[in-house]
Design a protein that fits this description.
The chain is α+β, with helices and mostly antiparallel strands. 34% of the residues lie in helices and 19% in strands.
């Protein structure tokens, strides 16, 4: 898998883990084309994986954060407005943008840009136009649960999302309810 295919993979799934195991797809296994036993660093394709990870991290189409269980997570730009709209319901630390850097001395450090400082103005504007139910539809209630444990009912169709009196939104009566 080359960097272009990796970006396509992230766009298709919306939210993926870099290499950790979890309830959502991970890019390392997609690159390898097989499940990885142990650390991805020990895989024969580790150098190639590292190059692809670097390309994905450098893309302006991908937010690199720790949204899914504190693990390095890639979120495609198509979901940023929905993510911003739901930010109050998600762990704020998980929404901070992270960037791995190498110092002149060869040390490794992570720089963090807190949420919402990394959010482009146009994404903030798009998020303001979304209802909570619309944002849930964009991301998918099941995916939200997998990455954050957040349980929200998902409307069957966007037209069934209604705005409530507080400026938020709630699903109309026919929305499916997840019981846990």
């Amino acid at each position: 898998m080359d960097p272009r295919a990796a970006l396509t993979f992230v766009k298709k799934h919306g939210v993926v883990l870099m290499s950790a195991r979890g309830a959502i797809p991970n890019l390392a296994e997609a690159i390898a084309g097989e499940p990885i036993r142990g650390s991805w660093w020990g895989h024969p394709m580790s150098r190639h994986m590292y190059q692809v990870f670097e390309s994905v991290c450098d893309s302006d189409q991908v937010l690199v954060c720790r949204l899914a269980g504190g693990k390095v997570t890639f979120v495609h730009r198509r979901l940023w407005p929905a993510l911003v709209r739901l930010a109050g319901k998600l762990p704020k630390k998980g929404l901070a943008a992270i960037r791995e850097e190498h110092t002149e001395r060869g040390h490794h450090r992570t720089s963090v840009t807190p949420y919402p400082r990394w959010v482009p103005k146009e994404v903030l504007a798009q998020a303001k136009r979304l209802t909570v139910a619309g944002a849930v539809l964009e991301i998918d209630a099941e995916l939200l649960f997998k990455i954050s444990g957040l349980k929200l009912a998902q409307p069957v169709h966007r037209s069934q999302a209604v705005v409530d009196g507080s400026g938020g939104a709630r699903p109309a009566r026919r929305a499916s309810v997840r019981r846990g």
